[in-house]
Design goal:
mainly alpha, 208 residues, 6% strand, elongated, 63% helix, Four Helix Bundle (Hemerythrin (Met), subunit A)
Length: 208
């Protein structure tokens, strides 16, 4: 279907004029053009959103790895918290690493609001370790080594939960996985729940 308009002077319509122009608009072509514009705009917004999501995933991976690194230091320095005066000089170092781990966990909670409640349970364990009233809590050897291994495993479990997508693709540390990645999003819920269980267990030991 076409819609045509004739442009010209009414007095001159009876005779040919080189200034007279005919404009014809094909309705089907106009509809197709509008659809193409709509699709292009939708694709632009979809692609922008996906890039932002991948960058968010990359930030989550980075913070989970930082948490693991700092919790590894906490694991090494744990005697300063629970084993007498001989290691008291290391207590500020222990608390500093614990604080860094807590900061990474707080950032992770902001990035992953969907799993904030689970991450909060891990944060509760961090707070128990920071509490001055738990300094020098008498733990027997079995309790101490249980707590030590639990903290060590917790850091790795949390990192594994957010690095689970590396099982499906390579990950750029700045922008996240490739644009064409459509696999599962982090975290791996099963591994995250295992990390939460470790945190609850560690807190129970500290409070025993």
């Amino acid at each position: 279907m076409q819609v045509c308009a004739i442009e010209g002077n009414n007095k001159e319509q009876a005779k040919p004029s080189r200034w007279r122009k005919t404009f014809c608009i094909n309705i089907k072509q106009l509809i197709v053009l509008l659809l193409l514009i709509i699709v292009a705009v939708a694709l632009f917004f979809w692609a922008s959103q996906r890039i932002d999501t991948h960058r968010k995933w990359a930030s989550m991976l980075r913070e989970s790895q930082r948490f693991m690194i700092h919790l590894d230091e906490v694991y090494v320095l744990l005697p300063a918290k629970f084993q007498g005066d001989s290691n008291s000089a290391h207590l500020p170092w222990f608390l500093a690493e614990l604080n860094y781990a807590g900061e990474s966990l707080q950032e992770l909670m902001k990035l992953d609001e969907a799993h904030r409640s689970k991450l909060f349970m891990i944060d509760e364990m961090i707070l128990a370790l920071q509490d001055p009233s738990t300094n020098g809590v008498p733990l027997n050897d079995t309790q101490f080594w249980d707590l030590s291994e639990t903290i060590h495993d917790l850091g790795r479990k949390l990192a594994d939960a957010y690095w689970s997508l590396t099982n499906y693709t390579s990950v750029n540390d700045v922008s996240g996985p490739p644009f064409w990645y459509f696999g599962p999003s982090p975290p791996d819920k099963t591994i995250l729940q295992e990390a939460v269980a470790l945190a609850v267990h560690a807190e129970a030991i500290i409070g025993s």
